[in-house]
Amino acid sequence: MTFNNSKILITGGFGALGYNLIQYLLENYNCDIHVIDNFSAGHVNFSDKVTFSYIDIANTEKVNSFFLTYKPNFIFHLAAHFANQNSVDHPISDVNTNVIGVVNLFETQKNNSELKKIIFASSSCVYGNSEIMTEDLNVSPYDTPYAINKYVGELYCKYYSEIHKVPVVSARIFNSFGPGEMPGNYRNVIPNFILKALNNDIINITGTGNETRDFTYVLDTVYLLSKMATSSFKNAEVFNGGTGTKLKILDLAQKIVKLTNSKSEIVITKPRDWDHVKDRCSNIQKSKQLLGYTPSHDFEEGLTKTINWIKEKLKQ
């Protein structure tokens, strides 16, 4: 399969992942891109090759109305109520977006004969504190509503694939970062650390600082999603999207301080009540073997590009 001459829908297309996915598609394919978004992660303007509709994926009536006339070939379902702390603070909103929104989307696609694939963006948080993070592991996440509902989304992928023959695959994304994401409440650790460093403010690390995460440059995540979309897999298969390399949060903060020439002090503070994950690192053997996925971006180079992007945005 190819994206050329295809109609591609991206839900949540104005988030960081959508921002980079759209750029990738525009640069490499002749395709029609339509974004639906509710601006929860910001508003990014693209070229006139991208069509936009303001729709909240949790609004059943508006979602149904939109798909009465629009029949996409590919859907990248990136819209989400992001992320863990946000879901702890607003569990009902998390259910609305991350569960009701998924069902809304799949219900409209049951009879779409033009649909080739839905790519569902799940999360590595479904693994909880598992020592081995492989796709065949039996998981039962409960640390946060976000983890619970992302796994529920995967289960709905299996249901609609099995019962309604909707072609779909799921990507468990590990700490994607890069240009396109501004710092802010409920955003990722990297842009928030960068903002603190640029302002020479204290960088607070919750926990011990020895916790590890698998930070994946966003273009590697985009590459995985595109490989999943054009592959032959369509029966709710799950693929990890990480690097297979882990980094301590303290080391991350120190790298950011160094790269920004910051005078920020790094302070260790008490862990958040819900955060029990000490180490998180992907096993990407399945993605490598079945999709040919190989993350190729150097972490420090990606971090530098992210810092420079945020610097430019802060000047605007």
Give an overview of the whole structure:
This protein has helices spanning 16-28, 60-69, 84-89, 91-109, 145-164, 189-198, 218-230, 249-259, 285-291, 299-315; strands spanning 7-11, 32-37, 50-54, 74-77, 117-123, 168-173, 176-177, 203-206, 212-213, 216-217, 235-241, 247-248, 266-269. The longest helix is centred in the middle third of the chain and has 20 residues, at 145-164. It is built from ten helices and 13 strands. By secondary structure, the protein is an alpha/beta fold. A seven-stranded parallel sheet has the order 3-2-1-4-5-6-11, sandwiched between helices. It has a two-stranded parallel sheet with strand order 7-10. Helix 1 links the parallel strand 1 (7-11) and strand 2 (32-37). The termini are far apart. It has two domains: 7-177 and 216-244 and 285-291, 3-Layer(aba) Sandwich (Rossmann fold); 189-212 and 246-279 and 298-315, UDP-galactose 4-epimerase, domain 1 (Alpha-Beta Complex), CATH 3.90.25. Helix 4 (91-109) packs parallel to helix 5. The radius of gyration is 19 Å and the shape is globular. The model has no long low-confidence stretch (mean pLDDT 95).
**Main CATH class of the largest domain:** Alpha Beta
CATH architecture descriptor of the largest domain: 3-Layer(aba) Sandwich
Helix/strand/pairing category: alpha/beta
| Average of the residue pLDDT scores | 95
What Rg do the Cα atoms give?
19 Å
Specify the number of helices. 10
What gross morphology would you assign?
A: globular
Helix content: 25-40%
The CATH topology label of the largest domain is Rossmann fold
Identify the strand order in the major beta sheet: 3-2-1-4-5-6-11
Contiguous uncertain segments of 5+ residues = none
The CATH H-level superfamily of the largest domain is NAD(P)-binding Rossmann-like Domain
- The proportion of strand residues reads 15-25%
